[in-house]
């Protein structure tokens, strides 16, 4: 089993999404320890992808590197590497904190790398069609406030965006483990313990047939 593990938080060792995504990977490896496992890990905050440029996007689509600078050629190679890793992995684990109602800029830069028309999706007469074979996606979602209620859902451009953009590529099997309200100091430890227990109790050994549902923790 090949796991592609992506982290994007700026919080380092204090990051909740990093701790969650690491626990998810540990649970997967434990449940499938009889397999030949490989983990490809990218810390996008420590090593941020270049923001997508018009030059790089055109070069990827045309497969023509003529006239490109060394930096532009490196950007094109990085795009191809990100796409190749996405196609090659069996499971994708992403740590996704909420910053200003949405995802970190470095994570968006990686998404812009993998979302390439003609490579990972294509336009048809009936709309976009994903070109990536469906596979389990595990998202470790963290946010300081509560954004899963009917009143606050309108502010969620984090989980909603991730599900939408992954669906564009053909990835529908999305499981979200959510730690929210962690900015509420008096409830922080209770909420973190709850999502940790949810991850540990999840059925990790079930051949990766994951449904597109989330596992929220809501305050009683």
TrEMBL record:
E.C. number: 1.6.5.-, 1.7.1.17
Cofactor binding note of this UniProt entry: Binds 1 FMN per subunit.
Keywords: Flavoprotein, FMN, NAD, Oxidoreductase
Ligand binding (FMN): 9, 15-17, 142-145
EC primary class: oxidoreductase
Claim: Transmembrane helix is one of the keywords in the record: no
Cofactor needs: FMN
Reaction(s) catalysed (UniProt annotation): N,N-dimethyl-1,4-phenylenediamine + anthranilate + 2 NAD(+) = 2-(4-dimethylaminophenyl)diazenylbenzoate + 2 NADH + 2 H(+); 2 a quinone + NADH + H(+) = 2 a 1,4-benzosemiquinone + NAD(+)
A Pfam family annotated for this UniProt entry: Flavodoxin_2
Flavodoxin-like fold domain mapped to chain residues: 1-201
Leader sequence segment: none
InterPro entries per UniProt: Flavodoxin_fold, Flavoprotein-like_sf, FMN-dep_NADH:Q_OxRdtase_AzoR1, NADH:quinone_OxRdtase_FMN_depd
Domain of life, per lineage: Bacteria
Recorded family membership: Belongs to the azoreductase type 1 family.
Function summary: Quinone reductase that provides resistance to thiol-specific stress caused by electrophilic quinones. Also exhibits azoreductase activity. Catalyzes the reductive cleavage of the azo bond in aromatic azo compounds to the corresponding amines.
Cross-referenced PANTHER family: FMN-DEPENDENT NADH-AZOREDUCTASE 1 (PTHR43741), FMN-DEPENDENT NADH:QUINONE OXIDOREDUCTASE (PTHR43741:SF4)
Subunit structure: Homodimer.
Protein name: FMN dependent NADH:quinone oxidoreductase
UniProt lineage: Bacteria, Pseudomonadati, Pseudomonadota, Gammaproteobacteria, Celerinatantimonadaceae
């Amino acid at each position: 089993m090949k796991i592609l593990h992506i982290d994007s938080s700026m919080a380092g060792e204090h990051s909740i999404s990093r701790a969650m995504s690491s626990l998810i990977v540990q649970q997967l490896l434990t449940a499938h320890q009889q397999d030949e496992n490989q983990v490809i890990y990218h810390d996008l905050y420590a090593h941020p992808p270049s923001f997508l440029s018009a030059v790089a996007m055109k070069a990827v689509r045309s497969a023509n590197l003529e006239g490109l600078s060394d930096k532009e050629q490196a950007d094109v190679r990085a795009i191809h590497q990100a796409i190749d890793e996405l196609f090659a992995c069996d499971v994708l684990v992403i740590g996704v904190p909420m910053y200003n109602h949405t995802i970190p800029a470095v994570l968006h830069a990686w998404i812009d790398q993998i979302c390439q028309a003609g490579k990972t999706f294509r336009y048809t007469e009936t709309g976009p069609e994903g070109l990536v074979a469906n596979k389990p996606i595990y998202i470790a979602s963290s946010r300081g406030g509560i954004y899963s209620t009917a009143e606050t859902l309108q502010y969620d451009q984090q989980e909603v965006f991730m599900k939408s953009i992954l669906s564009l590529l053909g990835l529908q099997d999305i499981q979200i483990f959510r730690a929210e309200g962690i900015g509420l100091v008096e409830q922080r430890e209770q909420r973190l313990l709850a999502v940790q227990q949810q991850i540990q109790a999840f059925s990790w050994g079930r051949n990766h047939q994951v449904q597109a549902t989330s596992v929220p923790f809501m305050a009683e």
